[in-house]
Design brief:
Largest sheet: 8 strands, mixed
Oligomer: single chain
Distance between the termini: 47 Å
Number of strands: 23
Strand order of the largest sheet: 6-22-23-21-20-17-18-19
Shape: globular
Length: 449
């Protein structure tokens, strides 16, 4: 066991899934933020357990050629962009290797490498932002939660957001301070404004603003709307009602204060209507490339029936409908299903059907209906697929399963479960949807051995 506050000289040899450097000192793994593989550092131990320790860099003897200056002045405190201390080449390398290691260690694969598709732009690429609001020295402040805390870190400009989003944030904060609008207090459950939510249509340029509030009214809403009209593309202001305690940002009720409550955007040549609860990939350009990879992996024929689980507003569903005979989309969020249905009508796509329900229940219901899809596409949340979904897919016996994953560990776990059913991993491709952050997307193709 290492001694707390002791300084050791060591070499960084690997990374954690969250991007921390890993060193080994006297047989103990030491996790070091802001470190880069190959660097020789003096590490001060900040926490010591029997089998592991946490440390911080106090001096670097051999600096990596991949080390760069941070693009964000609060990047180290915010914790959202964990890779701003390294160049993009090293970031992509470690993300691809993270996918490879997960599939080998957890999924039982034996991959020598996993290719990764880098993003064309690593700055200002996100089309959605959610700013928590707090009060500091009597004034409203909005920013992002520091990693592992609920302390709000504010910055004049976020390096991965377009300028319109920070402009909206500043206007809302000025409005709150000018009209003394109360900030929601997580401890007492009192106060009004909880989050500022902004979404931008990447092609359309349209901007949706949703204020998440602990109530159903917003004072001086007309004055705020007039201020928001200065934001390029501003189209609608929505009040998101959330009176429940807890970490969930959005509630279930939305009131339109200005505009129609939705914006439109174009993806893969299709037009989509987006409301606050609609799932939509946050990186537009990489989403098009990701979906192209998924469609290529699916190898859809004109006679095929395709099942798209976790379909959101129907982005992959409608894109695949061009090549398939019939596509069924499944989504648990009713508003997203309503948006998906309207999106199909708007784009003149007739060979689709949308089903509202939990993926496991929907798979069982479709199985009861005698649906036998030739291809199944899954794009689950971070927790991956539940065993009953994998069981239902296995009984449907599709020719191919295309797995779009946002978490390499749960992807690897599910690959192992599919392997037990006779499905093997044929191809895998990492896609960097979220540059500078610790997340990576993966497209995997599974088929019967």
């Amino acid at each position: 066991m290492l001694n707390k506050n002791q300084i050791y000289t060591t070499t960084i040899t690997d990374y954690t899934a969250q991007g921390q450097g890993i060193a080994h000192v006297e047989g103990c793994a030491v996790f070091v933020p802001d470190a880069i593989c190959g660097e020789v550092c003096d590490i001060q131990i900040t926490k010591a357990a029997k089998t592991w320790a946490a440390g911080k860099i106090v001096n670097i003897h051999a600096v990596s050629g991949h080390r760069v200056n941070r693009a964000c002045p609060v990047g180290k405190r915010c914790g959202g962009c964990v890779f701003q201390h390294m160049d993009y080449t090293e970031e992509c390398r470690l993300k691809a290797d993270r996918v490879r290691q997960s599939l080998n260690r957890i999924g039982g694969e034996n991959l020598e490498e996993v290719p990764i598709l880098p993003a064309p732009d690593i700055h200002h690429y996100r089309n959605k932002a959610q700013y928590p609001v707090t009060r500091r020295k009597g004034q409203a402040v909005a920013g992002f939660f520091q990693e592992g805390t609920h302390e709000v870190i504010s910055t004049p400009r976020c390096a991965i957001l377009p300028a319109e989003m920070d402009q909206v944030r500043d206007i809302v904060v000025d409005y709150m301070n000018g009209y003394r609008v109360q900030v929601y207090d997580e401890t007492t459950g009192k106060g009004l404004l909880r989050h500022i939510y902004v979404r931008k249509g990447w092609v359309s340029g349209e901007v949706l603003v949703c204020l998440v509030v602990n109530g159903e009214k917003l004072p001086h809403a007309e004055a705020l709307v007039e201020k928001l009209k200065a934001v390029p593309g501003f189209k609608t202001l929505v009040l998101g009602v959330n009176t429940r305690k807890g970490n969930a940002i959005l509630g279930d009720k939305f009131l339109n204060l200005y505009g129609e409550g939705w914006i439109e955007d174009t993806l893969c040549g299709l037009t989509f209507r987006l409301s606050p609860r609609s799932f939509y990939q946050v990186n537009h350009d990489q989403a098009e490339r990701l979906y192209a990879l998924a469609i290529e992996a699916a190898d859809i024929r004109k006679t095929d029936k395709v099942l798209d689980l976790y379909c959101g507003v129907g982005t992959i569903t409608l894109a695949m409908a061009k090549a398939a005979g019939q596509v069924i989309g499944v989504e648990i969020e009713p508003q997203a299903v309503a948006d998906a249905t309207q999106n199909a009508l708007r784009n003149g796509v007739e060979n689709v059907e949308f089903f509202c329900g939990d993926a496991g229940q929907a798979a069982l219901e479709l199985e009861r209906r005698g649906e036998k899809p030739d291809v199944v596409v899954v794009d689950p949340p971070r927790k991956g697929l539940s065993p009953d979904v994998i069981e239902a897919i296995d009984r449907m016996n599709p020719r191919r399963v295309v797995y779009v994953s946002c978490d390499p560990a749960t992807l690897a776990r599910d690959v192992a479960r599919f392997k037990e059913k006779g499905y093997g991993l044929k191809t895998v491709q990492a896609v960097d949807m979220f540059p500078r952050t610790g997340h990576v997307e993966t497209v995997g193709l599974l088929s019967r051995e």
